Amino acid sequence: MTHPKPKSTGIAFIGCGFVADLYLQTLPAQRGLCLTGVYDRDPARLETFALHHGVHAYPDRAALLADPDVEIVVNLTNPASHAEVTRAALEAGKAVYSEKPLDTSLDGARALAEQARKAGLGLAAAPCNHLSEAVHALTAALRAQRIGRPLLAHAEMDDGMIPGLRYETWRSASGAPWPARDEFACGCVMEHAGYQIAPLVTLFGPVRRVTALAGLRLPDKTPGLSGEPQGPDLSFGVLEFDEGIMARLSCSILAPMNRSLRVVGEHGVLSVSDVWEYDSPVRLTRTGAAFGQRLRRKVEQRVLSRWAPGAMLGQRVTAIGRLGVGRLRGSGHRMDFGRGVAALAHALRSGAPMGPMRDLAVHVTEVTLALQDTPGRPQVRRITSDPRPLPPGP
């Protein structure tokens, strides 16, 4: 007896810039997605992208939104356009997966979520690394109490001294330049803090309070952008969760590269060396005074700390699932950008509740803004959004 193949979910890209290439490279790993076409307001960029990848180019945004085969609009525009494009797609009756941030204001993010809720449409936003094999394995280890009761976490999202890395030479697979103007104007917190916030919320539940200080330490990142508005290039924050769990989060484009996540428990430490790498090893290090444990700590302190900050020795926790993407051309990372789109499509096909994805997108936005909006002095903010639990991937 043969069974019919499950219906594919039609998706379309609005925005064909740098990140669109990364999304498209990961689509083959996602079963059940069908790219109907792409659109960009820059005709030259649209033509280049469509020809490079051999995909359909819509003549205008209206044609894309009017296409009945499009069920999900993947919003890959620049941050200043996110809200307007998402709003238009929802008005056209399309579910939306938006690149981060969902909006640059909390009121705007809430309004989009409410619009989607009233229309009965799906709405989700990047990042989706909380669905990674690494975070899944970390979550399973915590639930199995491998380190006892969790006490605190150290989360790093430091990307190195970006202004000194010749970013003007960076190009995507189809030749799009890295969007320096948008990255610096939005700030590293809005652009990247979510890569730690989403996993932390997956592990510990909603953030209840944030104490943070952000700053702009290097305003003259490039002569071509001198004098233009810029967001923070670093932020330090303390996130408080239920049961007294606290996380220290640092985010910058100045400090040496370190994207590790470490969870400290009563009986040990669970560590992920790089939350950008979806299959990053998860290691379990037991706390104790035995000779082997003391020797391991000496090696970590005197050797590893010099060459790989955040790296730890210890037992490797088996990852759950298998990563279906290789290193991406244009970034070099093993990041499955399409996984969040696939999760939204699965929810649409299965009839799963849409609320958890919307809630998480708003919550990540609120926590991110709390880490960023600190006018020259530390700020303490109570977080009001309360997302429902979202099962971890992959």
Give structural notes.
With 394 residues, the protein is of the alpha/beta class. It folds into two domains: 9-125, NAD(P)-binding Rossmann-like Domain (Rossmann fold, 3-Layer(aba) Sandwich), CATH 3.40.50; 131-333 and 356-382, Dihydrodipicolinate Reductase, domain 2 (2-Layer Sandwich). It contains twelve helices and 14 strands. It has helices spanning 18-26, 43-53, 61-66, 82-91, 106-119, 133-143, 180-186, 188-192, 194-204, 291-307, 339-350, 355-372; strands at residues 9-14, 33-39, 72-75, 95-98, 123-125, 150-158, 209-215, 234-240, 246-252, 261-265, 268-272, 282-286, 315-317, 379-382. The strands form two sheets. Strands 13-12-11-10-6-9-8-7-14 form a nine-stranded mixed sheet. Strand 1 (9-14), helix 1 and strand 2 (33-39) form a beta-alpha-beta unit. Helix 5 packs antiparallel against helix 12. It is globular, with a radius of gyration of 21 Å. Keywords: Oxidoreductase.
Break the fold down into its secondary structure elements and pairings:
Layout: E1 9-14, H1 18-26, E2 33-39, H2 43-53, H3 61-66, E3 72-75, H4 82-91, E4 95-98, H5 106-119, E5 123-125, H6 133-143, E6 150-158, H7 180-186, H8 188-192, H9 194-204, E7 209-215, E8 234-240, E9 246-252, E10 261-265, E11 268-272, E12 282-286, H10 291-307, E13 315-317, H11 339-350, H12 355-372, E14 379-382
Parallel strand pairs: 1-2, 1-3, 3-4, 4-5, 6-9
Antiparallel strand pairs: 6-10, 7-8, 7-14, 8-9, 10-11, 11-12, 12-13
